[in-house]
């Protein structure tokens, strides 16, 4: 088996926040002013098309970002507002812009959990998700849609959340990957909002598709997307091995595993790490690699 590429994050990206930046022919980026430990330099909104446009991921409900998008649209008709998924840093501005631009909302169905909540369980991303937003059109895997005056190919990529989509620019080697693959960091997967099993399956699916250039919703383009995605896949598989090793060495809870794997990270990153470790534990338990049980002190892990 070939050695996977080394995973290297690219964090030198200049977002040029609020400005329209050409990414590819017929594709413009406008980055929102919502930088954070979870969104990097902010959410990238994209305008697809030339004389007629579609808007992908309108981003947060922010008046400055809305004004920047309207300036970039420059009076051209907008045929649809399209979402990669319904986390609010991507979708909170959608309803108002849809009304202002008289454009329908297209995405992969209303926000939903990757699996039902278990007794006593809470969804850590409940407030970060747009539960009330409904699509005018539900996009399906494999269909081709007219976005402005260009065509997009729809690819379901669940994992980060259940309704996540990627969009290939027809006739090019470019795909918009949303939060599924990002060059600045690995993707947050938090069960039950997301699913590690689905995320890994979607990574393999994306690698097999005929795209080389990945354009994510946070950070800059990834020029050799398949190699980077293979490195991400190997990274997750190595994390699974490290979790098993930590449990073998006595770690019996998510906080103990996080301390073993991420000893020096900041508090916001530690919270994200705990959510992703939880998703990986669930994945490993489903494979029969370890056992999970709920107790008064939270989730307990054993081999």
Q: Could you explain how this protein is built, in words?
A:
The chain folds into two domains: 21-235, 4-Layer Sandwich (Metallo-beta-lactamase, Chain A), CATH 3.60.15.10; 244-302, no CATH class. It has seven helices and 14 strands. The protein has helices at 63-73, 88-91, 94-101, 196-208, 225-248, 254-261, 267-286, and strands at residues 21-24, 27-31, 44-49, 53-56, 78-82, 105-107, 137-138, 144-147, 150-156, 165-169, 174-178, 213-216, 291-295, 298-302. Helix 4 (196-208) packs antiparallel against helix 5 (225-248) and helix 6 (254-261) crosses helix 7. It starts with 20 loop residues before the first strand and ends with a strand.
Question: How would you concisely characterize the structure shown here?
Answer:
The chain is built from seven helices and 14 strands.
